[in-house]
User: What shape does this take?
Amino acid sequence: MKTAGVVLDTWKLPVFQQHLNNAGYQYTEHRGPAKDTVLLKVRYNRMSQVSLIIAAANRECAECKSKKIH
Assistant: This one.
C-alpha cells in the first residue's frame, strides 16, 4: 500500500474527511507546513481512484468558497 500526502487549508478538512471516509480510505492528520493548513497522509492502492476522491472533495470546497459557506 502507498501513501499520498494532501496539504489543504484547515477549513477544508471536514469536506475531505467526509469524502475519504465515505470512500473507505484510511488516513492520518498532521500539522501542515504553513499556518492554517493540515497534511493528510492517505493510504491507497490505486492512485487513479484516490485522485478522483481528492478532486471531488476539492470541487466541493470550491463550491463552498464561491458561496462563502466555510
Summary: The first strand starts at residue 2 and ends at 9. Residues 47-66 form the longest helix (20 residues).
